[in-house]
Amino acid sequence: MDQRWRPSVTVAAVIEHGGRFLMIEEETSEGLRINNPAGHLDPGETPAEGCAREALEETAWHFRPTHLLGVYISRFQRSTTGEDITYLRFAFTGELGEEEKGRALDHGIVRTLWMTADELRATADRHRSPLVLRCLEDYLAGVRHPLSAVYCDPSIRGPGLEEHAQRGDGEGK
């Protein structure tokens, strides 16, 4: 029987402030892991919107994507169940906003961490995926693409919501 391949679409934020990167430590089926503020893209939102939402939900910090770092793909097999998952990640960098002190973090998030690039490299064995380090290295290498590189058709908003559709940059074009 033919099955259509459906990768999990995720968004991730690479957020630097004062030479440190905002990371999360989270409980996963593979144990305690370090990850970028990241998560699944929700229906009806652009990747940039999803990235800003996930950053806030996972870190309590507001974040405004200004550039696309890249689009990444990786495959993962859960050691506990053998489930085979492919992730398609849109990674962004941008401007750190205000922290919402006292805001509850998403389920499974143990804490936020501010880590240097060297600390992140030294903890690669604890990363949620190899994309954590790859996104960091691309950021440090100066990789930046305009947000307009991700085109979002108005149809993503669903019937009657097209007038609010955006290209991925929050600028509705």
Automatic annotation (TrEMBL):
- Name the InterPro entries for this protein: NUDIX_hydrolase-like_dom_sf (IPR015797), NUDIX_hydrolase_dom (IPR000086), NudJ (IPR033713)
Any idea where the Nudix hydrolase domain is?
4-137
The EC designation for this entry is 3.6.1.-
List, alphabetically, the Gene3D superfamilies matched.
Nucleoside Triphosphate Pyrophosphohydrolase
Keyword field:
Hydrolase, Magnesium
Q: Which cofactor does it need?
A: Mg(2+)
User: Which Gene Ontology MF annotations are present?
Assistant: hydrolase activity
Subunit organization: Monomer.
Family, similarity comment: Belongs to the Nudix hydrolase family. NudJ subfamily.
* Name the record gives this protein: Phosphatase NudJ
Supply the source organism for this entry. Answer: Ramlibacter pallidus
Taxonomy, top ranks, is: Bacteria, Pseudomonadati, Pseudomonadota, Betaproteobacteria, Burkholderiales
